[in-house]
Amino acid sequence: MDFRSRLSSSPDILLGKPVIKNTRVPVGLILERLGDGMSIEEILEATPGIEREDILACISYSSQVISRESLLAS
Protein backbone atom coordinates (compact mmCIF):
# COMPACT_ATOMS: atom_id res chain seq x y z
CA MET A 1 0.00 0.00 0.00
CA ASP A 2 1.22 3.49 -0.81
CA PHE A 3 0.68 5.29 2.49
CA ARG A 4 1.29 8.69 0.89
CA SER A 5 -2.26 8.77 -0.46
CA ARG A 6 -3.65 8.46 3.09
CA LEU A 7 -1.13 10.25 5.32
CA SER A 8 0.32 13.73 5.43
CA SER A 9 2.68 15.89 7.40
CA SER A 10 2.69 19.65 7.81
CA PRO A 11 4.61 21.86 10.22
CA ASP A 12 1.29 23.60 10.97
CA ILE A 13 -0.40 20.40 12.20
CA LEU A 14 0.91 18.64 15.33
CA LEU A 15 4.38 20.09 14.78
CA GLY A 16 4.83 18.11 11.56
CA LYS A 17 4.07 14.67 12.97
CA PRO A 18 2.47 12.36 10.39
CA VAL A 19 -1.32 12.30 10.54
CA ILE A 20 -4.16 10.73 8.64
CA LYS A 21 -4.99 13.15 5.81
CA ASN A 22 -7.66 15.72 6.50
CA THR A 23 -7.64 14.89 10.22
CA ARG A 24 -5.54 15.60 13.27
CA VAL A 25 -5.29 11.90 14.09
CA PRO A 26 -1.59 11.11 14.48
CA VAL A 27 -0.13 7.94 13.01
CA GLY A 28 1.53 7.31 16.37
CA LEU A 29 -1.84 7.18 18.13
CA ILE A 30 -3.13 4.52 15.74
CA LEU A 31 0.04 2.45 16.15
CA GLU A 32 -0.13 2.81 19.92
CA ARG A 33 -3.71 1.56 19.95
CA LEU A 34 -2.78 -1.42 17.78
CA GLY A 35 0.13 -2.13 20.10
CA ASP A 36 -2.22 -2.01 23.07
CA GLY A 37 -4.24 -4.79 21.47
CA MET A 38 -7.13 -2.84 19.97
CA SER A 39 -8.54 -4.33 16.80
CA ILE A 40 -8.93 -2.32 13.62
CA GLU A 41 -12.68 -2.43 14.15
CA GLU A 42 -12.34 -1.06 17.69
CA ILE A 43 -10.11 1.76 16.48
CA LEU A 44 -12.59 2.64 13.74
CA GLU A 45 -15.41 2.79 16.28
CA ALA A 46 -13.35 4.96 18.65
CA THR A 47 -12.01 7.29 15.95
CA PRO A 48 -14.75 8.79 13.76
CA GLY A 49 -13.67 10.07 10.38
CA ILE A 50 -11.06 7.45 9.55
CA GLU A 51 -11.29 4.34 7.40
CA ARG A 52 -9.74 0.90 7.47
CA GLU A 53 -7.38 1.92 4.66
CA ASP A 54 -6.09 4.77 6.85
CA ILE A 55 -5.09 2.28 9.54
CA LEU A 56 -3.41 0.04 6.98
CA ALA A 57 -1.53 3.09 5.69
CA CYS A 58 -0.28 3.77 9.23
CA ILE A 59 1.04 0.21 9.43
CA SER A 60 2.67 0.51 6.00
CA TYR A 61 4.28 3.82 6.97
CA SER A 62 5.70 2.40 10.19
CA SER A 63 7.06 -0.62 8.33
CA GLN A 64 8.91 1.60 5.88
CA VAL A 65 10.28 3.85 8.62
CA ILE A 66 11.46 0.99 10.81
CA SER A 67 13.09 -0.82 7.89
CA ARG A 68 15.57 2.08 7.73
CA GLU A 69 16.50 1.85 11.41
CA SER A 70 18.48 -0.58 13.50
CA LEU A 71 17.71 -1.72 17.01
CA LEU A 72 20.27 -0.48 19.47
CA ALA A 73 21.72 -3.16 21.72
CA SER A 74 21.09 -2.50 25.39
From TrEMBL:
Pfam families the record matches: DUF433
Domain of life where this protein originates: Bacteria
Protein name as it appears in the record: DUF433 domain-containing protein
